[in-house]
Design brief:
The chain is of the alpha+beta class. It has ten helices and eight strands.
C-alpha cells in the first residue's frame, strides 16, 4: 500500500481543513452538513453514476479527520455515507441505489444505522430483532439502543435476523425502515455526553415492510453486515484522530505562549515530551487507518477487518491520551468553556467504547491474528 499520500489526497485535506476552519468549534451542524454536501465531500466515497465522487473510504476518512482537526466533526458521516451508503452501493438493488445514493451524496437525505440491542451489545450473534415473512412483506420486531441521529434521519438501516432458507438458522439481514413507518417508535436517551447528534432507543412492533426494503440477499449473512462495520471502524478512527489533533493543537498553542517563569512552558520537557508522544501516537494511528482504508477500497475484506479493528483501537487510545495531556497542559484553563477541552474528556471515552470496545478488539486480534484460543 502507498505510505505517502497522493497529491489529490493532500489537496482534499487542504480544502476540507479550510472548510473546517471557517466553521470552527462552535459550528452549526446543519450549516456545515449542507456546505460539505455542496462541495461533494459527503458523497466522496459513493459511485459517480449515483452522484458520488467515485472515491472510497480513504477519501471519506480524510474528510472526517480534517473536520475533526478543526473541531467540527460530523458524526453522521460515520453512519450515513460510510455505513449505509457503502452497504447500499455494494449490495442494494438498482431501485435502492437510485433512491438513496444520490440523496445521501448531496446531503438531502440521511440514514441512521441500528445494530446494538439492550442484551446484545458486543455480541451481534445475540441480536433478537427478527424478520418474518408475511406474504410478500416482512414483519420486523425488536429493540435497538444507542442509535445515533434517528430524529434527523429519513430512514434507519436496521440489522435483524431472518431464517436462512438453506440451513434454517437465523442470519443477519438488513432492512431500510422509514422514519414514519407504523410501529417504529423512538425514545431519546438521557446522555451526559453532549453532542449535536442525539442517542435513541428504538422499538419495532411488527413493522410491516415491503419486499424491496430488504437490502441484498437475505442469506448473505455476515458478509453484508461487515461490509458496513469495517468502514464504521475506519471512520471512527478518523473521528478520533481528528479530534485528538484538535485537542493537541490547542495545547501546543497554549504551551508556546504561556509563560510562568522566564520561558514559555512548552520549552520545558515535562510539557513538551508528553505532547510529542501524543503527536506520535496520533500519527501511528493514522498510518493504520490509512492501511485499513486502502485494503477495504481494494476489496480485501478479510485483511481490512483486521486493520480496521487495529486502527480503531490505536486511534481511540491516542485520542484519550491527547485530550488528557492537552487538558493537563492548560491546567485550570483546560477545564474552562473558553478553551473547550473539558467536554472532550467525556467524548474521548466514546472512541474506546463504540462501536466496539477496545477489549473486544483485543479479543479479535488475539483470536484471529495470533491464533490464541477463545475464552467465550
Amino acid at each position: 500500500m502507498p505510505t505517502i499520500e497522493t497529491d489529490e489526497h493532500k489537496s482534499l485535506r487542504e480544502a476540507v481543513a479550510a472548510l473546517g476552519k471557517r466553521h470552527g468549534r462552535t459550528f452549526d451542524r446543519e450549516s456545515l452538513w449542507s456546505e460539505a454536501a455542496k462541495l461533494g465531500y459527503l458523497g466522496v466515497n459513493l459511485p459517480e453514476e449515483y452522484g458520488g465522487g467515485g472515491g472510497g473510504i480513504a477519501e471519506l476518512s480524510i474528510v472526517l479527520e480534517e473536520l475533526g482537526a478543526a473541531g467540527c466533526p460530523l458524526l453522521m458521516m460515520v453512519v450515513s455515507p460510510a455505513i449505509c451508503g457503502t452497504v447500499i452501493a455494494r449490495f442494494g438493488t438498482e431501485a435502492q441505489k437510485q433512491e438513496w445514493l444520490p440523496a445521501l451524496a448531496d446531503g438531502t437525505r440521511t440514514m441512521a444505522f441500528g445494530i446494538t440491542e439492550p442484551d446484545a451489545g458486543s455480541n451481534s450473534h445475540r441480536i433478537t430483532t427478527t424478520a418474518h415473512r408475511d406474504g410478500a412483506d416482512w414483519l420486523l420486531t425488536g429493540r435497538k439502543v444507542f442509535i445515533s441521529g434517528v430524529d434527523i434521519a429519513d430512514a434507519t438501516l436496521i440489522v435483524g435476523r431472518a431464517e436462512d432458507s438453506r440451513t434454517g438458522r437465523l442470519k443477519p439481514c438488513l432492512f431500510i425502515v422509514p422514519r414514519d413507518a407504523e410501529g417504529f417508535t423512538r425514545r431519546q436517551l438521557d446522555m451526559e455526553l453532549q453532542a449535536a447528534e442525539k442517542q435513541f432507543e428504538l422499538t419495532l412492533d411488527d413493522v410491516r415492510l415491503p419486499a424491496e426494503a430488504l437490502v441484498g440477499d437475505e442469506d448473505a449473512g455476515l458478509l453484508q453486515l461487515f461490509a458496513g462495520l469495517n468502514p464504521e471502524r475506519i471512520m471512527t478512527a478518523a473521528f478520533a484522530i481528528g479530534m485528538g489533533r484538535y485537542a493537541l493543537s490547542q495545547a501546543i498553542t497554549y504551551a508556546r505562549d504561556r509563560t510562568v517563569w522566564n520561558t514559555p512552558i512548552g520549552a520545558h520537557q515535562a510539557i513538551a515530551h508528553p505532547l510529542a508522544q501524543a503527536h506520535i501516537d496520533l500519527e501511528l494511528a493514522r498510518l493504520m487507518m490509512q492501511k485499513a482504508a486502502h485494503l477495504y477500497d481494494a476489496g480485501d475484506d478479510v485483511a481490512a477487518g483486521e486493520a480496521a479493528n487495529m486502527a480503531k483501537y490505536a486511534a481511540g487510545e491516542a485520542y484519550v491520551k491527547a485530550v488528557d495531556q492537552a487538558v493537563h497542559t492548560l491546567g485550570g484553563n483546560g477545564l474552562t468553556r473558553e478553551f473547550g477541552l473539558a467536554s472532550l474528556i467525556t467524548a474521548a471515552r466514546v472512541a474506546r467504547i463504540a462501536p466496539v470496545s477496545r477489549e473486544m478488539i483485543l479479543n479479535y486480534v488475539s483470536h484471529q491474528t495470533l491464533g490464541l484460543p477463545k475464552s467465550y
